[in-house]
Amino acid sequence: MDSSDVIDKFKNSFKEESIENVSDIEQALLSLEVSSDQDIINSIFRNLHTIKGSSGMFGFNFTASLVHEIETVLDVVKDGRAIFNQAAIDATLMSVDFIRELIEGDEAISEIDFNKRKQVLVNEIKKILETSNVKGDFQEALKNDFSKSGNSSVLEEVARVDPDNKFDDEALRSEFKSYKILFSPAKGILFHGHKPINLLSKLINLGNGYVRAKVDNIPDLELISPDNVYVDWEIILNTEESRESIEDIFVFLDSQSKIDIQELDKCFESDKGDNAGLKNFNLLGLDRNAKDLANSSLKKSDFVEKSFSSGDKNKFNVQDDTVRSKVNIASIKVDSKKLDHLVNLVGELVTIQSKLSKEAENRSSNVLNSISAEFSLLINELRDYTTGLRTVPIEILFVKFQRIVKDLSANLGKSILYHAYGGDTVLDKSIIEKLNEPLVHLIRNSIDHGIESSEERERLGKDPKGIIKLSAFQSGDSVIVAIEDDGRGLDKDKILKKAIERNIVSDSSAKTLSNIDVYNLIFEPGFSTASSITDISGRGVGMDVVKKQVESLRGNVVLESELGKYTRIKLIFPLTLAIIEGWLVRVKNEHFIVPLSNVESCLESNNLISQIDGVETKSNVMNYRGSMISFIRLREFFQVSDEKSFNEQVVVVNTNSGKMGIVVDEVLGQHQTVIKALGKIYSRVEGVSGATILGDGSLALVVDIDAITKLIR
Fold first, then answer.
1. Are residues 116 and 244 part of one domain?
2. What is the DSSP annotation of 247-266?
């Protein structure tokens, strides 16, 4: 490796690390929208300083110059002389976009153009910060003090600012309101994808106060189920936000969860006079310091109390994935190609282990069987750890989408809240890398077509603020990524009308389509129900691309909707692309793998129907648990043989269009193996997504269930 190769290698490392720093700055700026924590501001400066230092070393002089200018104008925020208001955050985000553009594009810009853009961006930030100077502004200074004060009570802060208590308590009351919130989650709240800890985290971001966990309902140890929640919560919250903002946090909970929100501001109304506010704060016990208040509460109740404030979130270890601070983890970076090669080698070991097990079985050797069993345990553990190395948290995408929702909703003049859950859910890095584009399109669709304008939502009796929820969770060997909005929902009649107009379906067949089939029509090429084309969406070139990209990752798309209420799109992926679990089946002398993620059950073929009312029918239908579903014989689909088997078995699978039967000669059992691509020559073979080598050295094709379903329909 010559010197130029070494320089290029380190330059690429610099670009990767700098883009990570840029993403951290972007995340921190978005966090400032809900919390003015000084630690967040400090993290912005740390990342800026890191980028500036590295940029100079690798000749990115424009980048170093821009970052230096940004640091200079932001010093007034770091020193507490100005406040990071919304306008300042937006302007700084635009500058961060320019930093990213410079690094990713290797500073492919002329000096004149660079200087022009730099001055415009820096001057905009400077102008905004000058208007937010806090000198002489008591109310802003008071708010700033609160954000820096950690666990101090409201009255402690007043006493520190105005020790003689000669202040306008009306001004204080106009800034903050106090609420008592009783939160009794349903026992099965976790089953619905909600975590109480995340909801409490959101409350933290609204202000300061304390949380108590009521443990009365926890049963005896032998009766506890890990899937249930037995704890109720009492929250005392001091906030500038409205009651509606608190209610929005619990908007997606089901009716079995109980929420009671009481406003405590009446405590101010019982006394009159110069110090009325102080006297009534005394009634609440807020004149004592936080330590005394906590000790008193522990003595007088059976609650477990935990103080928290917007300025000291580390003492209450909960987080909403929408805004998450960076966690320092001891780690090393490894070239992804090396990881891929390692996974391939482990895959070869899995194949060899399968051959060894087969040989041990054939020889009926106890010694060989024992060795094979031990080898199998080690290989399985090595396989799990190795495939885990390929997985990364989906959080890296979630943070980016927060910015997209913010920018697009502002562009369209809509008020939209963005909630993200399950950011710590991991997916194969190959899926993460290719998932960005389809998710961006789905989010843009939700913002443009799904969420109504604030005026329209008010007319419909909805909250003026729409909600887009992005979530991820693991279910078995699959990961489900869901995008949901509380907007218009899908209009079945409108979709059918458009599909008939475009000759996608006929009038007669349209009447027989289920809701799922109708909704899936939006994935047809060129299909769109948008009344007008915008620069965001509406051209009908996106949803079919989304589905193809998801399916290329061995994923499925499931669409759910209710007119006027919501639309939910689930993207279901395997945990890893390297190894597949499925049912090994035989058709004559050929073997196939049916992916386990699709399989619902296996049964004998005595439910297949060849006659209806005594008349021969060409329709392949079967009776499955009281319902009629279609089936297909793999023998016929892959043209394995014209001979008919008399002892057929059926694998019932779930597809995008419902359940379907796959008829085979024999189901051999569950099988885990490494999946291999077919290569360019066979990549277009329909109904097959890959291949694998069995223990005896023979080849088995991996069946693409959704592709087969589409072909036979």
1. no
2. HHHTTT--TTSEEEEEE-GG
